[in-house]
User: What shape does this take?
Amino acid sequence: MGSVKDYFKSLGSGVASLLKGMQVTGKEFVTPKITEFYPEDRDTYKWPERFRAVLELIYDQDGNHKCIACGTCERNCPNGTITIQSKMVDTPAGTKKKKLDNYIYDLGTCTFCNLCVISCPTDALRFSNDFEQSVFTRSKLVKKLNYLPEKPEPELTEEQKAKLAAEKEAKIAAAKAKAAALKAEREAAAAGNDKPAQEAPKADDAAAKALAAAKGDPEKEAKIKAALERAAALKAQREAAKKDGNQ
Ligand code: SF4
Ligand code: SF4
Assistant: This one.
């Protein structure tokens, strides 16, 4: 009697297990497929934006990138994947400027940690999700990221030229004012206490000129005033020291 009962019990559990299996199969049967048919669906398939496949310099529509060759990404890369080669160029303003020469990236050693991208101070980098990077030799994984031809430094606008000229003039005038103040002070020290009063106007003239040239630029005005104050303080200090020496 017991064996018949066991028989029906195991039959019931077998049927329940079969129904459960059929339920899973039925559910998967109606679930949309997630398998990709690469490369057949290459033209239509969209990879997730955040997928990191290869590092790239961001170029704008005019073919300019924002890399200033500071080397921060190179220093932050834990694998030595990045090599920044820079050079100095002349600018139309007559100054020297550090510029990117070669941005070398070795995809074969990159671990896609993104440290280079987040540490870049100018947001010049990003990861592309272009995953088709297979090549036959490792050397082909070494890429030059600044691949577009280098553009010449932009010419100065009339406004920038005028600003530069005004700055230059203000600097010269400030230097002259400082030199005149020092000269007046030395001459006063050499001739006695009555002469400085006669020589002082020279320094005042130069200071007035410098301030007039810097008019409209509060930063320059402040600088000139600070230089004049320093010269006056120095003068007072020396005169006080001289008086102390005479007593
Ligand atoms: S990509 Fe960014 S961090 Fe790297 S050198 Fe250029 S500006 Fe500096
Ligand atoms: S993602 Fe990481 S490993 Fe790759 S270049 Fe940037 S810092 Fe180096």
About this structure: The two ends are 134 Å apart (CA to CA). Residues 67-73, 84, 120, 122, 124-125 surround iron/sulfur cluster (ligand 1) (CB under 6 Å). The mean pLDDT is 86.
